Amino acid sequence: MKINFRRLLAASVLFASLLASFSNQVFSASLNKGVKPFVINSQSWCANNTIPPGYIVTNVSSNPYTSCSPYQQYTIAQLGPYDMQVAICSVSPIPTNWVITQTQSGNGGYCAGYQAETIQTTTNQTQMGVCANSPYPQNWVVNQVGQPGGNCAQYQNYHIATLVGTSASICSASQIPNGWVITSVSPVGGNCANWQPETISLPSGNQMHVCGNSPVPGGWYISSNAPYGGSCANVLNSTITKIQSYDTQLTMCGNSPVPAGWYVSKVNQSPGSCSPYLSEVIQKNP
Question: Where are the domains of the chain?
Answer without folding.
Answer: 36-124, 168-286
